[in-house]
Design brief:
single chain, 48% strand, 360 residues, 5-stranded antiparallel sheet, mainly beta
Length: 360
């Protein structure tokens, strides 16, 4: 049975469309609608995980197209690069949009959508991260690799012992990634410019999250249902704290205001701890499994987390603030530079990308 809404934090502004295509909210107080927008995907195409910044939103549609919307939800362009794409979140940069494909990476001009370059890495890749003049990504063939940002030419590649489904994190010239073979796993640090392995920290396998860098620590959830903080420069453990369950691929921890980190385990349970020592701040039980994307920070103490049945949990300080229930499934959420929660849907009636403004 679904949980009922406690209070509203957000209200979508919906464009014209059938009632079945609207975002549904659990009953609650009605307030004036803040600014927001909804864009119905072309031919009801399934939207992939969204990426957002202060200037717009990008998403992969039906594993073959990329759409870029401006910050008002108007379509800037929609292009078909001519290869099968992976529907993880694109990387938005000032002058280009970098998208994962089933064979590597594709860079599109942000102004026009024209393809700048496409690189074959031999397998499906993840959302890349920029480290200086290279993009670092992982591939499903157990490899972390880097390509030159201006040309897509291969810079280096390093094979690792287990599967890698997650996007890397970068900081201070290092790239961090997790691998998992089902029993064993590790968090590794690699020189982002040479590909040399700097250190490897062993973890329990069977459910490992992507890494998140905060201050000079890397945080991750492992298969033994513990969250860990590891020194970014040395690989030495700092602290660990118990979680209700193990981690999940593509569900990275989120940084919150006040030097805190929000973890979401495989079952969508949330736990917020202090970065310095891992001490508990607040937690709450999940309302559904966290299978892709999230959590994302919406404010100093507010977290949004999409779950596997298509709902989005919004929680503050250990209490449910709102449960959004859009038509269809939610492959991921994002936050924009102007304070909106961006939600993409697939298999909806219709499928949409929506930006929901937070109430003051």
């Amino acid at each position: 049975m679904r949980r009922t809404l406690v209070i509203f934090l957000f209200l979508p502004v919906l464009l014209a469309g059938a009632a079945c295509g609207r975002l549904r909210h659990h009953p609650g107080p009605v307030a004036a609608q803040p600014a927001g927008w909804t864009w119905r995907t072309t031919a009801d195409a399934n939207a992939g995980m969204p990426a957002a910044d202060g200037a717009g939103v990008a998403s992969v549609l039906n594993h073959e197209e990329v759409v870029l919307l401006d910050h008002h939800g108007a379509r800037r362009w929609e292009v078909t690069p001519g290869m099968e794409l992976y529907d993880t979140a694109p990387l938005l940069e000032r002058d280009q949009v970098v998208v994962a494909s089933e064979q590597g990476l594709v860079a599109l001009d942000r102004a026009t959508g024209a393809t700048r370059w496409a690189t074959d890495l031999g397998d499906r890749s993840a959302t890349p991260a920029r480290a200086g003049d290279v993009f670092v990504t992982t591939t499903w063939s157990q490899r972390i690799a880097a390509v030159h940002a201006d040309s897509g030419a291969m810079a280096w590649a390093l094979d690792l012992p287990g599967e890698m489904y997650d996007e890397p994190a970068v900081a201070d010239g290092l790239a961090f990634a997790t691998w998992d073979d089902g029993e064993r796993a590790a968090l590794v640090a690699v020189d982002a410019h040479t590909g040399a392995l700097r250190w490897s920290a062993s973890l329990a396998g069977g459910g490992v999250s992507p890494p998140t860098v905060v201050d000079d620590a890397v945080v991750v959830i492992a298969g033994d249902a513990f969250a860990y903080a590891i020194d970014a420069h040395t690989g030495a453990p700092r602290w660990h704290t118990a979680m209700p369950g193990p981690g999940s691929p593509e569900v990275a921890p989120a940084v919150l205001h006040g030097d805190r980190i929000a973890f979401a385990d495989r079952d969508g349970d949330l736990k917020v701890v202090h970065v310095a020592d891992g001490t508990h701040d607040w937690d709450m039980s999940g309302v559904g499994a966290a299978f892709r994307g999230g959590p994302v920070a919406l404010g100093p103490d507010t977290v949004a987390l999409p779950v596997d049945d298509g709902r989005v949990l919004v929680a503050t300080g250990g209490r449910v603030e709102e449960i959004l229930d859009p038509s269809g499934l939610v492959p991921g959420v994002a936050t924009s530079g102007d304070g909106h929660l961006v939600i993409a849907t697939r298999e909806g009636q219709p499928s949409m990308i929506s930006a929901l403004a937070r109430r003051a």
